[in-house]
């Protein structure tokens, strides 16, 4: 576990060891070379992803302005949770801006596990709520434009 | 209720409001609307005698225009030439922006409190800066580089609004080579930016820090500092090991005009560097 | 036989007219006499020539937002309480040249104010105002930095204090422990009785100014009559300010609902800061001649009620009247303790009298205390 600890960030670290084990057993590692698009905005959202190494840019396409990076995710950051939230469609694009390894879990498998094991489900959604809350606060700070 | 590091000896006790003459030696554009002005006192004795601690500021004066408080951003180990990183925001700063090398201006100081001197060897230092907030921290970085072995891990978390607003980018490599762990982010990326995008407090998620034997020093917009403090506290950094640098309106820098008060604190005397534990009841209070 | 000079700490009785001789002595030593005189319906502090300029027979009535002078058939010279002005007008003037700059030969020359500082003799300083001078001393010459012009004026000032026999509804010096009796810090202190002045000698300078005056040691009867004068003033004081829970009361109630209530009445007109004898805030003004070859820097009185007082790039830290009123009150009664080791308030009551909407500092504190957070 010490081996993987460095990329847990706060999402996975918030789960109990039992829940961590179950989650890790469900998923697999994905490799993305620099520049590769991981998913496009509008794609059906199939996986929950956590960055292990590298950097992923979350981008939004603006007509006539092109793709704009609105935030970057680094080691330990969760960067797609749409697989767990209806309508299960990606709300932004994700592109590896460095060679990146990401851990991904199929949304469908996770949902099944949550139904079978409500205790796990509770822990997962609680950890997820904290990540989303923290991301929302960070986004608010971007919106306020503190340097203006 | 009063705070922080003690002030140094009083400069110019006979007439605290009278500026000294200094000549502009060089001007270096740093970012959009921001340049660093290097200057030296005209009088050779004053040039030789002047000392400052990281975090302190001078009052820069242009006759007929006014005075402005600007942190010293140069190396405290080389105090004969003083650097001030100035953002053109109002009348006085814009008038400073029109100066050329060889021009003369008024300077008095140094005033205010300074970043804590690290007494315990091996202390970990976390420097978190936003925008022009990196300027009063640059003297700390230069001091650390000079005595790198005295410190443990040194982290620099820095961000600005856009890539064009980042200061001192030409020095980043040198700082990294000096074994400073530097992480940079911007709020808003442009087409060419390949680095991190996100607000400065988010940089805490890129690093791990030991809450024991660690000091945090932060300077930037007050909202940013508020969220930096949340992140530091979430990582169990003790409140009294967090230092901030605050800004308030200053007309005199010597505790007479009353403008810079923040509760019981005079930002020109007990500040601008303040220990968070000492000002916690007031920090972040609306319209205070 | 030329009378010798009374010694320090002595109390002496002199006929009332002898005060004129004190004035002559002071003027002979180069002092300008600044004292109370009636102008425009108020007792102001201006240069006076002699006893004829004093507000003899006048008595003031003060209430929240109200000031009236009444002529009585009494003959008291010092029968009034304090007017809208205070001695800071002369020690810490509202406009004061700091220095000027002349550009010459490619360089600059700084000119600081030349010439000797003014020698003022303050006539009729009441106890609250004497305490206020001491409070400003701690700010301007008793802290880390020293204001040289204030120091020079202060060094040369002669203080002729006057004990109060009268008080208005605004007074609360007793709560602030600053009066009504003058206890120190003066050169001469007089108590006015119907037939004589009882004069307490406070310093060698004070003793010197008694030259040429027929004085007699005060009798026990004189002293007891003088005691009853200040007791009368004390009995007239009805306003109270409880101070034993300050500054904590205010520090712990910075979000009290009452601040909004006061803010709905306060006009942010800054009158209170102008009349307050301890308010010291200033700003600076820079001006230049048309050619840009000479410029001045002057210090100008300022107020924390001014909107731009707290201006930083991007806006004002205290944009609301509520935040500015809170700043003034908490500074005066709370932060001042941490900054200068005493309260900033001396209980003179001017802020109550001269507030156009009659806000009473004592009542505001009571309102906060009534529903305080503990």
Please tell me about this protein's structure.
The complex is a heterotrimer of chains A (148), B (288) and C (374). Chain A has four helices and eight strands; from the N terminus they run H-H-E-E-E-E-E-E-E-E-H-H. By secondary structure, chain A is of the alpha+beta class. Chain A has one domain (2-143): Jelly Rolls (Sandwich), CATH 2.60.120.10. The termini of chain A are far apart. The model of chain A is unreliable at 1-5 (pLDDT under 50). Chain B has 288 residues and is of the alpha/beta class. Chain B folds into two domains: 20-111, Beta Barrel (Elongation Factor Tu (Ef-tu), domain 3); 123-245, 3-Layer(aba) Sandwich (Rossmann fold). In chain B, a hairpin with a 3-residue loop joins strand 3 and strand 4 (66-71). Chain B is globular. Mean pLDDT of chain B is 94; it is low at 1-7. Chain C is an alpha+beta fold and 374 residues long. In chain C, helix 9 crosses helix 11. The longest helix of chain C has 20 residues, at 321-340. The model of chain C has no long low-confidence stretch (mean pLDDT 96). The interface between B and C is large, with 43 and 53 residues.
Largest contact between chains: B-C, 43 and 53 residues
CATH topology of chain A: Jelly Rolls
Helix- and strand-based class of chain A? alpha+beta
What is the ordering of alpha helices and beta strands of chain C?
A: EHEEEEHEEEHHEHEEHEHHHHEEEEHHH
Calculate the terminal CA-CA distance of chain A, rounded to whole Å.
44 Å
Q: Which stretches of chain C are poorly predicted, pLDDT < 50 over at least 5 residues?
A: none
Assess the beta-strand content of chain A as a share of residues.
Answer: 25-35%
**Major sheet attributes of chain C:** 8 strands, mixed
Task: Using the alpha-carbon principal axes, give the shape of chain A.
Answer: globular
Count of DSSP strands of chain A: 8
Distance between the termini of chain C: 69 Å
- How many discrete structural domains of chain A? 1
SSE order and pairing:
The complex is a heterotrimer of chains A (148), B (288) and C (374).
Chain A: H1 2-5, H2 17-26, E1 28-32, E2 37-39, E3 47-53, E4 56-62, E5 66-73, E6 78-80, E7 93-96, E8 100-106, H3 107-116, H4 118-144
Antiparallel strand pairs in A: 1-8, 2-7, 3-6, 3-8, 4-5, 4-7
Chain B: E1 20-31, E2 34-41, H1 44-49, E3 57-62, E4 66-71, E5 82-87, H2 91-97, E6 104-111, E7 123-130, H3 138-146, E8 151-160, H4 172-177, E9 181-186, E10 196-197, E11 214-219, H5 222-234, E12 242-245, E13 261-262, E14 265-266, E15 273-275, H6 276-279
Chain C: E1 11-15, H1 18-28, E2 32-39, E3 42-47, E4 58-63, E5 66-71, H2 88-91, E6 95-104, E7 107-111, E8 120-125, H3 127-140, H4 148-155, E9 158-162, H5 173-176, E10 188-192, E11 196-201, H6 204-208, E12 216-217, H7 220-236, H8 248-251, H9 258-265, H10 271-275, E13 282-288, E14 294-301, E15 311-312, E16 315-316, H11 321-340, H12 350-353, H13 361-370
Parallel strand pairs in C: 2-8, 8-9, 9-10
Antiparallel strand pairs in C: 1-11, 1-12, 2-3, 4-5, 6-7, 6-14, 10-11, 13-14, 15-16
Helix pairs in contact in C: 9-11
């Amino acid at each position: 576990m010490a081996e993987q600890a460095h990329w847990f960030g706060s999402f996975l670290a918030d789960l109990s060891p039992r829940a961590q084990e179950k989650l890790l057993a469900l998923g697999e590692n994905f490799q993305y070379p620099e520049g590769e698009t991981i998913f496009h905005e509008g794609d059906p959202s199939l996986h929950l992803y956590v960055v292990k190494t590298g950097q992923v840019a979350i981008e939004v396409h603006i007509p006539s302005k092109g793709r704009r990076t609105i935030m970057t995710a680094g080691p330990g950051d969760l960067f797609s949770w749409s697989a767990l939230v209806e309508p299960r469609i990606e709300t932004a694009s994700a592109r590896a801006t460095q060679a990146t390894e990401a851990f991904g879990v199929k949304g469908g498998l996770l949902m099944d596990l949550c139904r079978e094991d409500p205790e796990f489900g509770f822990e997962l959604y609680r950890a997820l709520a904290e990540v989303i809350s923290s991301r929302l606060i960070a986004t608010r700070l971007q919106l306020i434009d503190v340097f203006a | 209720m009063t705070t922080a590091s003690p002030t140094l000896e009083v400069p110019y006790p006979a007439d605290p409001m009278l500026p000294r003459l200094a000549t502009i030696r060089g001007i270096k554009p740093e970012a959009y609307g921001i340049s660093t002005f290097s200057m030296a006192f005209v009088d050779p004795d004053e040039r030789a005698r002047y000392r400052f601690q990281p975090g302190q500021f001078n009052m820069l004066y242009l006759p007929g225009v006014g005075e402005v408080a600007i942190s010293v951003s140069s190396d405290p180990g080389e105090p004969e030439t003083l650097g001030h990183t100035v953002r053109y925001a109002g009348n006085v700063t814009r008038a400073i922006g029109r100066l050329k090398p060889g021009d003369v201006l008024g300077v008095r100081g140094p005033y205010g409190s300074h970043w804590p001197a690290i007494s315990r060897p091996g202390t970990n230092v976390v420097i978190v800066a936003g925008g022009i907030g990196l300027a009063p921290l640059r003297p700390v970085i230069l001091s650390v580089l000079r005595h790198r072995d005295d410190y443990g891990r040194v982290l620099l978390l820095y961000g600005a609004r856009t890539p064009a607003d980042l200061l001192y980018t030409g020095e980043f490599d040198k700082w990294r080579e000096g074994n400073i762990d530097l992480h940079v982010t911007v709020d808003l990326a442009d087409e060419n930016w390949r680095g991190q995008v996100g607000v400065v407090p988010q940089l805490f998620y890129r690093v791990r820090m030991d809450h024991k034997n660690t000091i945090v020093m932060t300077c930037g917009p007050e909202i940013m500092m508020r969220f930096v403090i949340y992140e530091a506290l979430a990582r169990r950094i003790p409140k009294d090991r967090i230092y901030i640098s605050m800004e308030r309106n200053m007309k005199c820098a010597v505790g007479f005009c009353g403008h810079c008060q923040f509760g019981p604190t005079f930002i020109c005397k007990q500040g601008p560097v303040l220990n968070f534990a000492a000002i916690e009841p007031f920090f972040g209070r609306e319209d205070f | 036989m030329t009378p010798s000079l009374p010694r320090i700490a002595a109390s002496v009785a002199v006929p009332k007219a002898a005060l004129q001789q004190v004035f002559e002595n002071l003027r002979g030593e180069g002092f300008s006499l600044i004292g109370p005189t009636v102008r425009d319906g108020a007792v102001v502090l201006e240069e006076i020539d002699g006893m004829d300029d004093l507000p003899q027979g006048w008595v003031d009535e003060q209430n929240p937002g109200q000031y009236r002078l009444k002529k009585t058939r009494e003959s008291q010279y010092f029968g009034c309480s304090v007017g809208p002005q205070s001695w800071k007008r002369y020690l810490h003037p509202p406009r004061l040249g700091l220095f000027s700059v002349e550009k010459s030969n490619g360089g600059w020359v700084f000119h600081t104010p030349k010439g000797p500082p003014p020698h003022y003799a303050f006539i009729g300083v009441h106890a609250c105002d004497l305490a206020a001078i001491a409070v400003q001393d701690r700010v301007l010459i008793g802290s880390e930095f020293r204001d040289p012009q204030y120091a020079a004026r202060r060094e040369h000032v002669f203080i002729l204090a006057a004990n109060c026999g009268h008080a208005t509804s605004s007074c609360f010096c007793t709560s602030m422990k600053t009066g009504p009796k003058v206890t120190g810090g003066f050169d001469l202190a007089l108590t006015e009785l119907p037939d004589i002045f009882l004069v307490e000698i406070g310093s060698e300078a004070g003793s010197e100014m008694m030259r040429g005056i027929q004085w007699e040691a005060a009798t026990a009867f004189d002293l007891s009559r003088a005691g009853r004068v200040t007791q009368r003033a004390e009995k007239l004081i009805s306003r109270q300010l409880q101070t034993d829970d300050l500054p904590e009361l205010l520090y712990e109630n910075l979000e009290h609902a009452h601040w909004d209530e006061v803010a709905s009445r306060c006009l942010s007109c800054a009158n209170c800061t102008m009349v307050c004898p301890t308010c010291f805030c200033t700003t600076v003004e820079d001006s230049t001649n048309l050619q840009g070859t000479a410029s001045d820097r002057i210090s100008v009185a300022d107020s924390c009620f001014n909107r731009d007082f707290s201006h930083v790039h991007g806006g004002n830290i205290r944009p609301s009247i509520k935040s500015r009123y809170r700043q003034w009150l908490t500074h005066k009664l709370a932060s001042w303790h941490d900054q200068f080791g005493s309260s900033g308030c001396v209980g003179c009551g001017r802020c109550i009298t001269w507030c156009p909407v009659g806000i009473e500092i004592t009542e505001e504190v009571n309102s906060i205390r009534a529903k305080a957070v503990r």
